[in-house]
Amino acid sequence: MPKSILVTGGTKGIGRAIIYRFAKEGFDIATCARNEHDLGNLKADLEAKFPEIKVLALVADLSKKEEVARFSAQVKGFCKPDVLINNTGVFLPGSIYNEPEGNFELMMHTNLFSAYYLIREFVPDMVKRKSGHIFSMGSIAGTTAYANGGSYAISKWAMLGMTKCLREEMKEHQVKVTSILPGATYTASWEGVDLPVERFMKSEDVAESVWGAYNLSPQSVVEELIIRPQLGDI
């Protein structure tokens, strides 16, 4: 039976790179994003390049709890994910004391609450099967305080804490839990920045790291994976 992976926010950047890395290995793919056109292009390209796999690509705004529930029900009708990548996220810079009203709620719901609700949807079945791997896409911003991080940094610190708690809960159930903590990776969030592309990490490098962490023996788990640009943080 083919294995399957669920990647949220899969049409761009790191999420997209992870999807292609696992599709290359024969995994069926379930993903979502808010842009229907981008999802259609992704699905068509995956099916053309990897005709042996199945692809489910659905429009969903995971900042809304009811959308998480609807999307999860559709995924469950498609597969039982062996791997869950909580990758959905939004980045809006600003300071805690004066960032625009609503930044906190938007980023907490998108970056943190979506992962919490998806864990509750899919992890109980992994526990029953005594197998599975959950990856939470955090950030260096969740380990190092910096000015102008605002609510984004808060959400990523919280994501790391939640993932640590989940790791402790899953030990006895043989379900692996990994925090991925990338530094500056060239994605849409950095477009327009006056820096050479070579200064950033590649999304494909993060995807390769996720694949490597997934492929350890059952006796070992990567709990936290910090990946930074060779020249340091930006």
Describe the structure using short key phrases.
alpha/beta, 41% helix, globular, Rossmann fold, 6 helices, seven-stranded parallel beta sheet, 234 residues
What does this structure look like?
With 234 residues, this protein is an alpha/beta fold. The protein has one domain: Rossmann fold, CATH 3.40.50.720. The longest helix is centred in the middle third of the chain and has 27 residues. It comes from Algoriphagus zhangzhouensis.
Compact description:
This is NADP-dependent 3-hydroxy acid dehydrogenase YdfG. InterPro entries: NAD(P)-bd_dom_sf (IPR036291), Sc_DH/Rdtase_CS (IPR020904), SDR_fam (IPR002347). The chain has 234 residues and is of the alpha/beta class.
How do the helices and strands line up, and which of them pair or pack?
Layout: E1 4-8, H1 13-23, E2 28-33, H2 36-49, E3 55-59, H3 65-76, E4 83-86, H4 103-129, E5 133-137, H5 150-170, E6 176-182, H6 203-214, E7 224-227
Parallel strand pairs: 1-2, 1-4, 2-3, 4-5, 5-6, 6-7
